[in-house]
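Q: I'm writing up a methods section and want to include an example of the input and output format. Could you take the sequence below and give the corresponding predicted structure tokens, formatted cleanly so I can copy it straight into the document?
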Amino acid sequence: MSSSFCRLVGALLLAGLSAGVEATVESGPGPTSSQLVLPAMERQFEQACESGDWAAAKAVDLQMARAQADLAGQPTGTLNRGIRISACRDLQPPVVDDWDRDVAVDTGIVTAFDVATDSAGRFWAAVAHPNGEVRILASDDDGRTWGARFLLQPGSAVTKLELVPAQGESGFVFLFFLEQSQAGDLWLMRIAGDTASGALPVCVGPDTIDDFSAVCDRDSHYYLYCLYANEHSTGRTGAFMRSVDYGLTWGSATDWWNGWDPRLSCTSGSTIHCAWRYAATGTQIHYTFNRHYGAAGYWSWQRVVSTGGDKCWDPVVAQADTYPEWRAPVWVFYTVGRRDTSQRDIIYSYSLNDGDGWSPGHSFSDPYIDEWAADLKFDAGQPGGFIGLCYNYGGGRSGDSATVYLRLGSAGDSTYWTHPLAVNAAPAGLGTDVTGPELVYSHSGSARAPAVVYCRASALGSDGLYITAPWLNRTAPDTIVAPALDCGPNPARAGAVISFNVTSAGRYTLNIYNAAGMKVDRLVPAAVQPGTRTCSWDSRGHPVGTYFVELVGQNGTRRARLTLIGKQRF
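A: Here is the clean output for your methods example:
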């Protein structure tokens, strides 16, 4: 245990804020216990951050947030009386479209959607329809079949959705949704398997909200982060907030200025990345980061990561999932409208040092074909810093057809991206107009390419939600199932028990990789028969951090994430 963390525990014990003791607000004119302890806690937080002891920093930060909530008398989250959530059990049969490798997720006109993979490997999709209803669907077989799990009825149209999967102490899937009531009310619901909470308020009331972005970090006790924007004005256009209790309450908002099209991202560690369109001109993409779990007062100075004077919009930001995080590359992609050609192009900038310095203004190839609506996501289930990009190609004018392109990159070379792959190819004349593609990664199988989810366009708008992926080829057998893989305890201190379920007899190998993609250990169990088997890994001698366990055998490859914490005991 570090000396800074020991000093922290001592200070908290003296203040009456240690484990199991709640802070109380005293009556009378004198300062409260929370007011007395906050300055000392702030000094402890800064010392922990300066020393790089992020575990201690987050422990102090959590206590400060609770003390500040006590001072503010912040109430717990309340249910929205007008929002109804009901469970669905109308599991629909698999629908394979005539187009190559496309599977229907939901049908009908789509006004908003998002997709994600939870910590157990289940695919989730949230789809909003013009009648105001939101269907939450899930797939337990990597997108081959989908079933409706919940029906959300907010009472007014939903204009944006974001699914935020979490892990650690409470592995919820959070659904953030923006409804049109009161010029934009922002809510969330928490999904845990086959159960869901009521709607919890994030920001409701008189503030106008047009857009938002939400993420969570990947610590065991994670925080939620949200940045929302009012795109009808300049100046103070929104606020950044965070929740330290899994969305039940939200802390004091940090004012955000001239920020439209907000987008947040974070990987392992404490850094929150943020990109947005500069509202005052609409011709710049701005970026900032916070390496202290979004704490107020720790945002970096703002950087302009775009070039030129053309209008630009819809930035996306992501960092490679490699260690150490402060040396991992960060990319920002955005759409720019060319005044000379009236075309839309995808432009990107990158940083090789966690967002400190930038190389801006890179493009792909064709300036005379529309490229737009990019989505960028790192592969959290694979070591090595792989990252996926998808976007629309063509379809900029009425009657044009659009194709969804997929490219893959990695932390090894920030400017190298694979040749574009058209993932929604269709026979000529059938029409392939689509809008808003999104990426989703599978936790099973050996393929590192993500699935792409997109809407087809019709005269009435986005018509039907579809998923396409290499493993969805209709000619491939569906009976081969990758072995289930689990690690426990997770997080672990001195070792873990790795359990796996196999469906075919044979020899299986367990490989252990660190976050940089380097193999650090190899376990070779004896030939096994079908069923569940276990294998112990002694992690003593390995540094704390994120590791990946890879099982290779008769039924393919399966990977799982394992976190080592604390000092190793010899």
